[in-house]
Amino acid sequence: MRKRATVVPLLALLGLLTPAPATAQPTGTVVSGQARFQILSPTLVRSEYAGDQRFENAASYNVVNRTGFARTPYRTRVEDGWLIITTSALTLRYRVDSGPFRADNLELRTGGTTASPWRRVVCAAGQLCEAEDQHREGLLVAAEHPGHTGAGFVAGFSYTGNGITATVSATGKHRVVVRYANGRGGDGKHENRTLSLGVDGRQRQITLPATADWRDWRLAETEVELSAGEHRVSLTKTAADSGNVNVDSIAILAPGQPYPGTQDRAIDDCRFGTTCEAEHGALTGAAKIADEHAGHAGTGFVAELVGGTRLSHRVSSVPAAGTYPVNLRYANGVGGDGKHEPRTVLINGQPVTLPTTANWSTWATATARIPLPAGTSGLTVTCPDTGCHVNLDTIGINATQQHLALGGYRRSLDGYTGTNGDPRLYPGLLYRDGWYLLDDTNSAYANGTPRPDRGAQPYQDGYVFGYGQDYKTALGDLARLTGGPKLLPRWAYGVWYSEYIDRTAADFRERIVPAFRQHGVPLDVLVVDTDFKARNTWNGWQYDTAKFPDPQGFLDWVHGEGLHSTLNIHPSIQGTDPDFPKAQAIAKGKLARGQCADCYVFDWGDPDQLRAYVELHRAMPTDFWWLDWCCDGSGSSLRGVTPDSWINEQYAKLGGFAFSRGFGSLQAGGYSGSGPLPTGPWAEKRTTLHFTGDTSSTWGAMKGTIGYTSAEAVSTGMSAISHDIGGHNDTTGLRGSETYLDNGQVRYTTKLPDDLYARWVQLGAFQPIMRLHSNHSDRLPWQYGPAAQASATKFLNLRERLVPYLYTLAEQANRTGVPVVRPAYIDHPGSQEAYSTVDSQFLLGPDVLVAPITTPGEVGETRVWFPPGQWTDYFTGRVYQGNTWATVSAGWDTMPVFLRAGGMLVERTNNVSNDVQNPADALTVHVTAGATGEFTLYEDDGRTRITQHRNTLVLHNAKKRDWTVVVHNADGSSRVIRAGRQVVINLR
């Protein structure tokens, strides 16, 4: 049992007016022994524990700002051995002198929720340390090879710096035993491998012999001598190690002690008054941890409990012996026995009936009253011998709230078809119960330098968000803490044309750009895909002068047309490339062979290799770069920095912003490394326009991107998100309008069905970035039938007219953290419909509601929920009252887009060919008759505040330009007022 900390009576009375054990400082900092708390805002507190009392003040790679917050009033006291910090939004409690943060000694209360933000697993001798529970550096958790325990295994160790670190508690001579698999690696070799075993920073190399395949799990061990106390035990691939193994678990064992089973898994407590994840318990029997059914909390659930299954949690901090409600969140579909019926589980031996649910993705809650002793005890869920065939998601001990993620992100949507299930998203900032812990413990310093190793001393650094349903404040806190989303140049919010097809300078000069002008279609950005390169069209590093005889002249011509351009780059180099000797020399001979044929890859964490990589770009003139990914294998060995974020920052230095996938790294495994890395997604938004990858051209894929844009935005703070409008991979085989050579054979491009093309362009017109793209498929309006061409032309011109408005929203996002495209619950958190409609509609800023049509046919319809207020159809003028539903239909010439009463939509008055060459000297403001509201138009040279006082529109600090006002009346009609250069406009 833990000994209760002694409380000094005077401090209990005076509440931290004296320095110890806790001190309130004018800077908003409270120190309690080895713990430090910095109150940054009413909804954000930094929680830092340093066993050596060396607290960190320098900016980290994720957290670049802790000083830009307004002074926050708070109260603090010590009561019954607890340090209690209270702001207007949250209460944080820490048990004085209780050591590093964990479930039983740090508690958050916010918005009716009680939570234990920190989960700390300490492995005692004889316990199973699941690899997925330990700190990971540059590694993903995978589950595709059978025979692992827990949720999966740590996969790869393929790159220098990849590693896991466990906290263990043992004394004397022990064995460190590793459960691993070592099959044929990505390097094609099947041989003994090595990793480095570290104990409190002191490393030695260990050998992991080859196993039959990746399903063959074996044990390898080495002896260590441990002093009393906690220790940090790590497995790392250093530059001297071969790596390329999978690790399932480790254990610290006394001589003769057998390798533990899953029943001996090291776990943290489930604190009384909180809801805990079922998958964090100790599990025995045939049940597994899985994640394939949507709607679960945490990282997964315990899947289909059967007879003999036992799930155990350690319940702590029960205030007094008594009978308390225990809430199980579960799903009960058709079981493995073929039955769909109520099931029975036993909680500490007491039977509880779980009614059926519609399917395995439908979750319900059942409650039982269970006797619990005071303090710490066990809680076990078991199945009768006949089996119970249910999935368990969470266990609430005297608690009902669920920590369910809002939104989510992934590195890319590569391979998404819309017909093969929804892509798995990884949670970020926002949750329904209103809290989040951003664990920044292992983030490097802001310049990429790893934080110093502290040996055996524990260290934790995390930011506790307690926002309740105030999601905008949470996003604002995130933006101030980690940096706001990048504000791109204004032209980037216009129309992009991109296609993976072999183009030449002549093609762009003589056919493509003139066709845009001829057909009245705007264009701002030309994307030059990979075939422009010489020697090797994938990873060459020179323009092919047969296609682009004068690269600088081509770029000058692009600028003369009012355009900007980007070049597609793949991050490797052939050994036969003319630039390879120079690159290898700059890298001081350290470029290593990659997994592609005769190619070499870069470690961007090494300054010499990074310099060599950057130099390769110097001779290719362009405005900015598109870092594409597939199979090359470059990455970064920097500890504490997400590799994508690091290289994207370097691209931003080269061209103003990065255009790339994000949040992870190819080196982490999987096609494009879709999973998240522990260092997180937080730095990416500061530099990057996120390209979401190669989806398929289907109605389902188009529909899926509706919810994905806002999901990624609210979970990471990223605002500039770019999908392939039209999809990348053809699924129809419809013959297109162009021919190209493929290995000497003449082939035709493909195209979308006209209805799918028209609807996808409509959606793109209201996305953060409008980028037409495909893989050898038609995406230009004049390549389609008359009705589809007219629709696409209309919406592409509308997009261009909206650039001033979109640029304003992007600047707002940069300042406030609230993204351009967002789900309705950001502005209407109290409306349940705002959560249920995230996959079918979104808000563009606070005032424009967009509900794209995602079904085939000449006329489509969609069910729309209107948030509180009054909403006017932008195209038809029809008025809808808020808090209602309506089925809205539209042909290809319109789509369901609505303006909120009191909101304003500002657009160019006239169609223009591009943004750069056409100053916004004539603007139109859409308003609702009789409403009041305000909008501030942002431009690089100033802001214009526009206010509506029912029947008067006032322009504050307005530039000299021609203003037009469209007044939308309640009866569906509208009036156009040509105001010229007036600054006070009568709307009657």
Automatic annotation (TrEMBL):
It comes from the Bacteria. The lineage of its organism: Bacteria, Bacillati, Actinomycetota, Actinomycetes, Pseudonocardiales. Residues 1-24 form the signal peptide. InterPro entries: CBM6, Galactose-bd-like_sf, GH, Glyco_hydro_31_C, Glyco_hydro_31_TIM, Glyco_hydro_b, Glycosyl_Hydrolase_31. It holds the Pfam family CBM_6. Belongs to the glycosyl hydrolase 31 family. This is Alpha-xylosidase. Residues 127-253, 274-398 form the CBM6 domain. SUPFAM superfamilies: (Trans)glycosidases, Galactose-binding domain-like, Glycosyl hydrolase domain. Keywords: Glycosidase, Hydrolase, Signal.
